[in-house]
Q: What sequence folds into this?
């Protein structure tokens, strides 16, 4: 399938595995960006197949390949590449899903026609290689929006060994970063790390993630608890909401809960799923009664869920703070709640909270200090309200959807202005044999030259 371009707009192809109604935080980021760019760009999103368990959109679940026919001029064109959906239950299923997606998305990208800009996210990380191939094939501008650095994260948390293979993968990724016209990092720490790895600083840009303030509105915590079916008079609640994985160190929070058994007016709620949930469930069996583990619920709005917390916990483990940035910080700010972060001094996460007075900071791996910070927050409820109000104001100014996508729009506009030609798909080069060698015909060369003038 070749997409017919809107001749009045530059064409942008955005590639990411997840896209709503499927799960995944990067999918929501891509949806927000794609929708907000349609007024100026002809936007095509190339995404992965929906998992069978996702029944929120039956029509989309039946259509595992194309949704382009239903796109409107005000909506991005969404194409779903075919692939397996075996899920994360087994390593074999993960490998099959990943391999089939990468093969399908690369083939579809090569068949869609020539874009002016290829924007790839790093879900999965190997998409940077697909982006580099499409840049080579079409001569398009390439932007790589790095959500987390791999395989660096895997090595830092001990999931991967620092081996010859991981070094080769890292080298291949860095080559694709150097070939890109722009590399966007979601934190300044990540940007500095990429610069230290040899990525040209004139191509590196700090482009943080965001949340959508239209869907996360501040609510009174008591009213939100009643809407969620909680008891009317509940304790001061520390909420962790998000993925329970290997990069989210929750052991420190569990240890702090054990130190707070003497405070029945404090409770800790962990809401989420992920690879680390079974181990967490095992540890919590017979543990302190002031900590609760819950599954995410789709019955209540995100605003109601996030507003049940009086204080949001945002951890950042030692060793990974240069490779990722917790996007749950922006959701907490949108809900006008103070945050409790764990991280090293000088990291962007810690500096945002400290400089703007958004909450409390504890060093990683210090459960006693974390427990003291929780008690301090529980005893300063009026102060928490002021911190939450500052969080919302800063969120609206810097991390809400409108200012965030507008900054990206300006960056893309500046990038495309360096090459004013709006590209159409070039004709396939004609190869002829001359004196025993293959060469490109003159007519094809002239045609391609005209497209690049």
A:
């Amino acid at each position: 399938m070749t997409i017919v371009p809107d001749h009045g707009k530059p064409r942008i192809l955005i590639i990411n595995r997840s896209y709503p109604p499927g799960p995944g935080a990067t999918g929501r980021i891509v949806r927000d960006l794609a929708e907000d760019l349609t007024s100026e760009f002809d936007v095509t999103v190339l995404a992965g197949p929906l998992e069978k368990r996702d029944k929120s959109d039956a029509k989309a679940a039946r259509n595992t390949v194309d949704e382009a026919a239903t796109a409107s001029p005000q909506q991005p064109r969404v194409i779903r590449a075919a692939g397996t959906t075996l899920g994360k239950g087994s390593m074999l299923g993960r490998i099959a899903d990943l391999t089939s997606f990468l093969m399908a998305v690369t083939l579809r990208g090569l068949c869609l026609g020539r874009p002016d800009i290829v924007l790839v996210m790093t879900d999965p990380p190997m998409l940077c290689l697909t982006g580099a191939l499409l840049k080579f094939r079409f001569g398009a501008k390439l932007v790589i929006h790095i959500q987390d650095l791999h395989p660096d994260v895997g090595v830092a948390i001990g999931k991967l060994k620092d081996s010859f293979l991981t070094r080769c993968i890292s080298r291949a990724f860095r080559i694709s970063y150097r070939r890109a016209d722009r590399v966007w990092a979601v934190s300044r720490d990540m940007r500095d790390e990429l610069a230290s790895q040899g990525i040209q600083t004139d191509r590196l840009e700090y482009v943080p993630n965001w949340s959508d303030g239209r869907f996360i509105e501040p609510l009174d915590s008591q009213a939100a608890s009643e809407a969620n079916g909680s008891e009317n008079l509940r304790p001061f609640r520390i909420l962790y909401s998000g993925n329970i994985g290997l990069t989210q160190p929750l052991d420190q929070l569990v240890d702090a809960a054990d130190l707070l058994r003497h405070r029945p007016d404090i409770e800790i709620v962990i809401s989420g799923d992920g690879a680390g949930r079974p181990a967490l469930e095992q540890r919590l069996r017979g543990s302190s009664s002031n900590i609760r583990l819950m599954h995410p619920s789709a019955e209540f709005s995100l605003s109601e869920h996030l507003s049940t917390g009086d204080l949001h916990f945002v951890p950042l483990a030692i060793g990974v703070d240069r490779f990722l940035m917790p996007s749950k910080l922006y959701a907490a700010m949108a809900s006008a709640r103070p945050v409790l972060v764990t991280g090293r001094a000088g990291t962007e996460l810690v500096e945002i909270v400290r400089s703007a007075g958004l909450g409390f900071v504890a060093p990683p791996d210090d459960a006693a200090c974390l427990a003291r910070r929780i008690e301090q927050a529980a005893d300063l409820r009026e102060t928490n309200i002021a911190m939450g109000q500052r969080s919302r104001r800063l969120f609206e100014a810097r991390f809400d959807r409108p200012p965030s996508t507008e900054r990206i729009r300006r960056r893309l506009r500046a990038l495309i202005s360096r090459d004013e030609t709006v590209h159409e798909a070039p004709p396939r080069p004609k190869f002829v044999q001359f004196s025993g060698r293959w060469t490109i015909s003159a007519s094809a060369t002239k045609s391609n030259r005209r497209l690049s003038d």
